[in-house]
Design a protein that fits this description.
The complex is a heterodimer. Chain A is mainly alpha-helical. Chain A has 7 helices and no strands. Chain B is mainly alpha-helical. Chain B is built from 16 helices and no strands. Chain B is globular, with a radius of gyration of 22 Å. The chains are: A mainly alpha, B mainly alpha.
């Protein structure tokens, strides 16, 4: 994006300002979801605690590690492009996307397990929230992967350099948002008693 | 006007405005029938007036969208329209189909219309907003396909821009979701469920893409702000529209026999639907503030800014008012819905079509960039007359709605529907007066096309 607008960048916030508006809007949606969950849970503590037992915490932990690792990879990708190492940047981005892919596979295994046991959206309030929240996040992981892939393709076409890397930062910011939301979602739904 | 073929848009715009007048006249007729039940009975009963009022709205907005696309796409693609002749043929087909349908509504009883048009072969009639005879619906599909083909081919052979892409996705969605008007299941729950796929996924889904694209186009033209900046905003606005709007369909599924989770999904996602509209407001004002030049067509800029504000108020705020399931439990199908419907349709879709007409019409009529100062002043008067009177219509209906909810549903001694309607008469009278002012605004708008024609163009 070689326009005068994008070159004239400030250090804070990193990435494009537009993505931050989008991130804030997304966080608002998740915040409402989390608040509704918390409010509903406070009225049905026993039901929520009991239902929670059937969740697979180990798989969720694997997913947490996958996302945290992917965020680290994204950080390395930004660092690489800042040093004009385009190829390295692309490799780190691909690695991050692969971690996202692992997340999706593990999540599908979890969904399959529930489906197999006859648990779905209509089972009870807890599972309504469990499926809605995690699936909404699942879709965000996919969107994040699409964005990172688009950034990788643009990097490959030579659109980024040590002086113009706003696009890489923009993608990175979105991916970190996807990661952070999971870091709240994981304890909230899987762990909290 | 950069390309000769853009001229076809003029036909569509003139038809749109003409049908708009018809819509408002029928609105006034029904408004009066609210307080004088037998006004024009039996010639034009309330149900017919309502059908004509809503159907004309949809048809003229479609004319407006198509006209906008025929003007916008060649300019964005930097090439002549693929087939101006096809666009013109489809114009007459659509106009004839629309006129015949409205005449059918007015001249024969609805059941007879169903018989004449062979509804029994493929029954699709009898559902709110989708009352058109099956043959008309097929006509709409044919026109939509020919239109998409024409626009799509134009975009393919020329420059591809984000605005064209978003507009095309919106228009394609419009055509695809309309197909659900042909699905008419026996099961009432399913019937309503998919009916909303036309109604909701149009106005709270794909139409928002069309709105965003047209707004972005007019802003690029009138402010001179970098295309990249505007496209970026367009991306996040449509992403947010779709994220909130698609599952937001659930706010219509609370009480129709669908699973309970829709109450949660509908409430949470639709509560977020004001966000993209708020972004649009910020976007429009930001772009105008960052403008690189003062476009001579200030009326168009006023319409563009007005759209962003009124869409947020009408669709966003007035929608949010009754979108949460516990609130909607009381407000469902009351005058609150009518209030929301009026301001949302006017603020979002009427105003965006008028924005585009305001921007394009001077060029289509052979001017360099804008109408004369005199004409613009009259147009701006019409903007304020229509906008303010529509706000009053909305406020009176909201007042009526709140009273209705209380008297009919919330109080300890709920009263019957018609008993309550009698008590709301004052609100309905005030709404009718505001409606007359709206008509005056619309006539002022039309007169703006005929004043100051000989004056030199205003160069700002």
């Amino acid at each position: 994006m070689p326009s005068s607008y994008t070159i004239e960048r400030r250090d804070y916030p990193p990435g494009d300002l537009a993505i931050w508006i989008f991130i804030l809007a997304e966080l608002l949606v998740f915040a409402i979801f989390f608040a509704t969950y918390a409010f509903t849970r406070s009225n049905h503590v026993a039901l929520f605690n009991h239902s929670q037992l059937s969740l697979n915490t180990n798989l969720a932990l694997i997913n947490t590690l996958a996302l945290i690792t992917s965020s680290y990879f994204v950080v390395r990708a930004v660092a690489a492009i800042r040093e004009d190492k385009t190829r390295l940047c692309i490799h780190w981005l691909i690695a991050a996307v692969m971690m996202g892919f692992i997340f999706l596979v593990v999540k599908v295994i979890e969904y399959h397990h529930h489906y197999h046991n006859g648990i779905n959206l209509r089972t009870n309030l807890f599972f309504m929230f469990y499926f809605s929240l995690t699936f909404f996040h699942f879709m965000h992981v996919i969107l994040g992967m699409v964005i990172l892939s688009a950034v990788a393709i643009k990097a490959r076409q030579g659109h980024y350099s040590s002086t113009d890397f706003t696009g890489v930062e923009t993608g990175a910011c979105y991916w970190h948002m996807v990661d952070i939301v999971w870091l709240i979602l994981f304890p909230l739904i899987y762990i909290m008693k | 006007m950069k390309y000769q073929s853009q001229a076809v848009a003029k036909y569509y715009f003139i038809a749109a405005i003409t049908l708009f007048v018809g819509q408002i006249l029928f609105g006034l007729i029904m408004g009066l029938q609210y307080v004088m039940g037998d006004f024009l009975f039996p010639e034009i009963p309330f149900n017919v007036a309502r059908m004509v009022h809503t159907n004309l709205l949809i048809v003229w907005l479609l004319f407006g969208f198509m006209g906008s696309a025929y003007y916008l796409v060649p300019e964005e693609a930097e090439t002549e329209l693929f087939s101006p002749k096809l666009a013109l043929i489809m114009f007459w087909v659509f106009l004839a189909a629309g006129a015949l349908t409205i005449l059918g509504y007015l001249m024969v009883p609805y059941a007879t219309l169903a018989d004449i048009t062979g509804n029994s072969l493929l029954p699709t009639m009898g559902r709110e907003f989708l009352e058109q005879p099956t043959i008309t619906k097929i006509g709409i599909v044919v026109v939509a396909l020919a239109f998409l083909f024409n626009i799509g081919m134009t975009a393919l052979k020329g420059r591809k821009t984000v605005i064209t892409l978003v507009l095309l996705i919106g228009l394609l969605g419009l055509a695809v979701f309309f197909l659900f008007s042909f699905y008419n299941p026996i099961n009432l729950v399913k019937d309503k469920f998919y009916w909303w796929w036309v109604v909701h996924l149009w106005v709270e889904g794909v139409w928002e893409l069309i709105l965003g694209a047209i707004l972005a186009f007019v802003l690029i033209k009138t402010t001179g702000v970098d295309r990249e900046v505007i496209e970026k905003w367009l991306y996040i606005i449509i992403a947010m529209s779709l994220i909130t709007g698609i599952i937001g369909t659930g706010h219509h599924y609370y009480w129709i026999g669908t699973p309970r989770y829709w109450q949660w999904w509908g409430s949470i996602f639709s509560a977020m639907e004001p966000i993209p509209f708020f972004m649009m407001t910020i976007f429009a004002f930001n772009m105008v503030n960052q403008r690189r030049r003062n476009h001579p067509n200030q009326a168009a800029v006023l319409w563009a800014l007005g759209t962003s504000v009124m869409a947020f108020l009408g669709a966003g705020v007035w929608g949010f008012m009754h979108t949460l399931a516990p609130v909607n439990y009381y407000t469902h199908g009351t005058q609150i819905t009518a209030a929301h419907g009026h301001l949302a349709f006017f603020g979002a879709y009427v105003m965006i079509v008028l924005t585009m007409i305001s921007y394009a019409m001077p060029m289509l009529r052979g001017r360099e960039a804008a109408n004369s100062n005199k004409s613009q002043v009259v147009e701006m008067w019409s903007f304020w007359l229509m906008t303010v009177s529509m706000v009053f219509i909305t406020l009176f209906l909201t007042g009526a709605g709140i009273a209705q909810v209380y008297l009919q549903r919330y109080s300890d001694t709920p009263q019957a529907f018609m008993v309550v309607q009698e008590k709301l008469a004052t609100f309905y009278w005030m709404r009718e007066v505001a409606g007359v002012v709206f008509l005056i605004g619309l006539l002022t708008y039309i007169s703006s096309f005929f004043v100051g024609g000989k004056e030199a163009e205003e160069i700002a």
